User: Fold this.
Amino acid sequence: MTEALPPIFIARRDHVRLERLASVALRERHPVGGFLISEIQRAVVCDAHDMPRGVACLNGWVTYRVDGSRHTESKILVCPDEFRSAQINLSVLSPLGASVLGMSVGDRMKFVSIEGGLHFVIVEGLSARVRAPLLFPVNGRRGSVRFRSGHWGPMMKGPALPDNA
Assistant:
């Protein structure tokens, strides 16, 4: 018997942006593109005033636990072009980020890592949308993770994709 997927909700203001991101990722054969598209397609899209409380949204803090660990992590869920630091950001174009997108506190979902391992995540808590602080100057920053064709930023424990991937 398979585990039912939790319902997910996406704000209308984020839906088009996420669809474009997932479509480009799929076209460029990003390993999470198909998963992100499937999550976006099954989501309930809501206007801002109709969004249920306690849902993991873009630019909001999400606290989660992976594989039943005692340790929780809290990060800001962002698109790759807003990714600044692996210490505080979680990209929606990572398997974990695509999994928590739109989930509610207490929801649990399985996901497959870049390496192919099966994991599960539980959303433990959320905070309101925030503007992620810029931790590094944009000009002259080494190791930029800004989105551009062929460069998606870090993924959960995954290798960097070659430029021709």
Q: What stands out?
A: Residues 27 and 33 are 8 Å apart (CA to CA).
